[in-house]
Amino acid sequence: MKKVLLDLSRGELAALVAAAGEKPFRAGQLFEGLMQGKRLSQIPVSAALRTTLSERYEDEPVKIAETFVSADGTKKFLFALADGNIVEGVLMSYKYGNTQCVSTQVGCRMGCKFCASTLNGRVRDLTAGEILGQILAVNRAEGGTLKERKVTNIVLMGSGEPFDNYDNVVRFLRLVTAEGGIHISARNISLSTCGLVPEMKKFALENIPLNLTVSLHAVTDEERRRTMPIANKYTISEILEACAFYFEKTGRRYIFEYSLIAGENCDEKHALALAALLKGRPCHVNLIRLNEVKERDLKPTSEKEAYRFLGILEKHGISATLRRSMGSDIGGACGQLRARYLEEN
Ligand code: SAH
What we know:
Elements: E1 3-4, H1 10-19, H2 25-35, H3 47-56, E2 57-58, E3 62-69, E4 75-81, E5 86-94, E6 97-101, E7 105-107, E8 122-125, H4 128-141, E9 153-156, H5 166-176, E10 189-193, H6 197-204, E11 211-215, H7 221-227, H8 236-250, E12 254-260, H9 268-278, E13 283-289, H10 303-315, E14 320-322, H11 336-344
Parallel strand pairs: 1-2, 6-9, 9-10, 10-11, 11-12, 12-13, 13-14
Antiparallel strand pairs: 3-4, 4-5, 5-6, 7-8
Helix pairs in contact: 1-2, 4-5, 6-8, 9-10
The structure holds S-adenosyl-L-homocysteine.
């Protein structure tokens, strides 16, 4: 597989341009063109540079293979990578802008019992440019430019565990927040992890103050181990300590994801225990009713019970929201679209 041109920073592109004996302003043209989601053939560089680069680099690492539009306006995308692998993503419209959910790996090896992304394990990591390419392809397809962006917010909540692909994800974050590019502020980016404690601590020192989100889904280590194998490696108390470190270093409050699974984690006692666990911490809880995955036998809790759970947290002073499920008519939970695609093809 050729190297991915979008993996390169503006400085690295400048070095390539200089090595090819081209004028420095070509590097700016190249960077801007690539960030607009253009191919080499659409960017005004010299024929010689175009040839040199296209011999060594893939200039279209991510293609939109299919688009599904939900009744609520949510769009789901199947992206084809240059080696034929498929990943999926979502674009959700809100009052404040459009949020794109991106994948960081083909598949996942974390093995969470409720998640479709992990059904066939991890195939490979995505490079930084393949993660960025998902955003640039959608921004362009939606008619966005670098000034009038159609993607304003990003969540790393598609397939994959971002911190299991740490270096590529950090490189991606530097590229996507870079000035002169699509330039999305770290404050508008959320990264969700199943709780890889050493990487959480390392990330606190990267100076990328995004919204760190941790998938908790349980209130005791014992219960967490039932649905999340990673709980055999790191305890909830180690996770809380890493979150506190993140807050100390970045000043950013952190977020917990808590998917409500019937008969598993959403009784009154769970809500009370969660409130006690998080009391006084600078955090927010995102509740979501489990998205049913047909390959798994776990079921979502009822809407009524979900509101009761939310009410208990609020009564105990915990900042929390119950997220509405969007786009469920076009492929439900994380990884489902790719799973269905693999099944059909
Ligand atoms: N690997 C990262 C990001 C993955 S998915 C992580 O574990 O955080 C983003 C969120 O969706 C995670 O909180 C994940 O636990 C949750 N999730 C996965 N499958 C789900 C399902 N079927 N229903 C509800 N939430 C789900």
